[in-house]
Amino acid sequence: MITTPLSEQDTTLLDRAVALAQKxxxxxxxxxxxxxxxxxxxxxxxxxxxxxxxxxxxxxAALTAANHDVRGxxxxxxxxxxxxxxxxxxxxxxxxDAGVARVVISMLDPNPEVSGRGVEMLRQAGIEVLISDxxxxxxxxxSGFCLRMEKGRPLVRLKIAATLDGRTAASDxxxxxxxxxxxxxxxxTLRAMSCALITGIGTIRADNPRLNARVDSDVEQPLRVxxxxxxxxxxxxxxxxxxxxxxxxxxxxxxxxxxxPSGAEYLSFDSNHGKVDLEQLIKSLAGQGCNEVLVxxxxxxxxxxxxxxxxxxxxxxxxxxxxxEAGRGMFVMxxxxxxxxxxxxxxxxxRPVGGDVRSIYLPQEKGL
Length: 368
Ligand SMILES: NC(=O)c1ccc[n+]([C@@H]2O[C@H](COP(=O)([O-])OP(=O)(O)OC[C@H]3O[C@@H](n4cnc5c(N)ncnc54)[C@H](OP(=O)(O)O)[C@@H]3O)[C@@H](O)[C@H]2O)c1
What we know:
Blueprint: H1 8-21, E1 35-40, E2 43-49, H2 58-65, E3 74-77, H3 91-98, E4 102-105, H4 117-124, E5 128-131, H5 136-140, H6 143-151, E6 155-162, H7 181-193, E7 196-200, H8 201-207, E8 223-227, E9 246-251, E10 264-269, E11 271-272, E12 275-276, H9 278-287, E13 292-295, H10 299-307, E14 313-318, E15 345-353, E16 356-363
Parallel strand pairs: 3-4, 4-5, 6-13, 6-14, 7-8, 7-13, 8-9, 9-10
Antiparallel strand pairs: 1-2, 1-3, 11-12, 14-16, 15-16
The structure holds NADP nicotinamide-adenine-dinucleotide phosphate.
């Protein structure tokens, strides 16, 4: 479909719609974050955003805020209005019924099977539709959703806390509190954005984490996933004491788990040498509606995700401490024997977070 450079005024109003979409950052999962502005002669008369799956889409929230008095008005929306009946009616029909004159959108629906249908519906009803030629910001806030719709997999972030000398745990196994309060707060934001958090049984045994998102605002808690192996999560683990779903996954090659702790779910996957097939796990999470997945594991599972080529972003929080060579490294990757086999990344952001430094890397061959 043809995209158009927008006027300055249209750009400003569409930017506002994208900013509104951000308000759903922690809550819309598995749906995309979407914002909508309705304006008459460039003056905003109603705006809204999608808050939660099953609740009003952004367009309906904006129509409601404008008391549906929008005949002849312009609509700015960060994602193509839907054309299908899901948990709510099609937004394209609601805009047609409301009699709006013009709809400006940041990007088409990334689902190739429905992409463009909302635009077609609006145009057939005589509404002028413009599609921005600069969808970058709108795509960025839904990068995981776009990947899931376009490629059937979620965006996988790997987060690790390390010392200045690249150690993730001391030789006695202790690793909690490598980084300071600000970095830990930042990680909770990252968790809150995620649909699923994945850790390994080694981390559960060493740290007994709660693995939930502790932020000051409303949050839809991510699914917590533990990859088990020869060892399994004990029934009194802290992960079972928090609200939200817990999914335990194990390798099919090992004797099956004797019972699943109450409140948890269990899935087994194909395996190699007693290790869960991580690609199958990631595909399964996409099938369960996960857009963004955060891996927060020890060096064994973190290295396995990297070796399997499943990581889209690495987030490293580095403290200004040194704990020496007896501490554990960041990634166990026994497959790499020579420098020619190195994996290369591109630094896209690096900034201080309290007394630590947060750096974000993308695999060189992937990009976003
Ligand atoms: N600094 C940080 O950011 C950070 C974060 C988390 C944890 N940690 C530290 O890391 C340490 C634990 O690390 P870890 O390496 O022992 O544990 P881990 O990476 O959390 O878990 C690894 C275990 O998962 C199981 N597993 C099943 N399928 C697997 C697969 N495909 N690939 C890899 N593992 C698979 C295996 O269990 P079985 O051995 O039972 O077969 C494996 O030993 C602790 O000291 C913890 O404090 C540090």
